[in-house]
Amino acid sequence: MKADTSGRCVAVVGAQWGDEGKGKIIDVLSEEATLVARYQGGANAGHTVRVDGDEFILHLIPSGVLYEDVRCLLGNGVVVDPWTLLEERDALEERGVAMDGRLGVSARAHLVLPYHQLLDGAQEENRGSDRIGTTGRGIGPAYRDKAGRTGLRVADLADEDRCRRVVEGRVDDANTLLEKAGVEERADADEILERLDEIRDEILGLATDTGQEIRRELDRAAGRVLLEGAQGSLLDIDHGTYPYVTSSTTTAAGAAAGVGIGPRVIDEVVGVVKAYTTRVGNGPLPTELEGEAEERLRELGSEFGATTGRPRRVGWFDGGVVDYAAGVNGLTALAVTKLDVLDEFDEIRVGDGYELDGEPVESFPARADDLDRVDPVYETWEGWDGSTAGCTGWRALPEGARRYLKRLEEIADTPIRYVSVGAARSDFVRVGG
Ligand code: GDP
Ligand code: IMO
Ligand code: MG
Question: All domains of the chain, ordered by start, with CATH?
Answer without folding.
Answer: 9-40+52-78+209-430 (3.90.170.10), 110-207 (1.10.300.10)
